[in-house]
Amino acid sequence: MEIVVDTHTHTLASGHAYSTIIENATAAQRKGLKLLCTTDHAPKMPGAPHYWFFHNQIVLPRFISEVGIIRGVEANTLNTEGEIDLFDESHQYLDWIMASFHEPVFKPSTEAEHTEALVNVIKSGKVDALGHLGNPNFKFNIETVLRCAKQHNVAIEVNNSSLTGRSRIGSDINCDEIVRIGKEIGVYFTTGSDAHFCEDIANLGHAVELLNKYDIDPELVITTSPSRFLNFLLLRGKKRIAEFEHWY
């Protein structure tokens, strides 16, 4: 399975990453990506950029180093009501909104509360994908959440960093189960390196291996072509991006 879009990457603006967007795009071009989602942390994460950072992504060129730039954010799921730390007016400036649990923002709780939060963030209609769901600190009812994601066309991330053993240790077992059940339900999958340094951009080998293990249909992996990714955004109700018209 060939992946040409990395939907989860960070720049030094996140406060704990080490590369610029130009360095990330240069690495993406060298590694054969067509589209790069820049998804710095939303404001509630310690060290994250402020409110205006996300509005001002409109100044980013649509191509850097010949790689298409998708303006995005990794928002924080804040509570069981499914609220995220992104102002409603910010949405118009962004193409791609992920939501994830992070321990400094959402204190790990019970499986029932994690499940409630995920279901409500999906139902809010404000997020396009759920990030690194394998984290063992945030156990949830996988079938309940994935059926809701399927109903609302929210993608499920297979996070490569979670499968390396370097972060969110113990995620691999949960990620395996998420992909297995996700295939049965027919969810959309996305793939993210979760790169915090430019050389990790497009490092998606572990994610691809897991998707291949369960013989996931490439048509359900939205990162296998620019067209699949951009048309998924249309399915989510996003506007066409004129600069990428040749890929629709």
TrEMBL record:
Please list the GO terms describing molecular function: phosphatase activity; zinc ion binding
Every copy of the Polymerase/histidinol phosphatase N-terminal domain together lies at 5-79
UniProt protein name? Phosphatase
Q: Which domain of life is it from?
A: Bacteria
Binding of Zn(2+) 3, residues: 74, 102, 132
What family is this protein classified in? Belongs to the PHP family.
Alphabetized CDD domains for the sequence? PHP_HisPPase_Ycdx_like
In which residues is Zn(2+) 2 bound?
16, 41, 196
Record's keyword terms, sorted: Hydrolase, Metal-binding, Zinc
Q: How is the cofactor bound?
A: Binds 3 Zn(2+) ions per subunit.
